[in-house]
Amino acid sequence: MVMCRCGSETTRTTSWSVSNPGRQFWRCSRPSMSCGFVGWIDPPMCPRAVQVIPGLLRAMNRLEERERLAREDALKMKKLLFCSWFLFLFYIFLY
Question: pTM to 2 decimals?
């Protein structure tokens, strides 16, 4: 286990900053302390990976948002279909 400068244990965290996307590091586990960063777990990324990963993350976030909106639209359509069938059957049995 890696220990912090303050003597407490550290936790493994993933950085999503622009300069270190996806890189794992050790961080002080005590929230009240301002120790923060302790040390990197993995080696630095190549410059090309640092350029590519943020774009891939943005594309993935856009796709997830589109999927969420499509699911919401599908649910609305199911509700409308149910209402239309209900009104159709009401009309058929009423007349």
Answer: 0.57
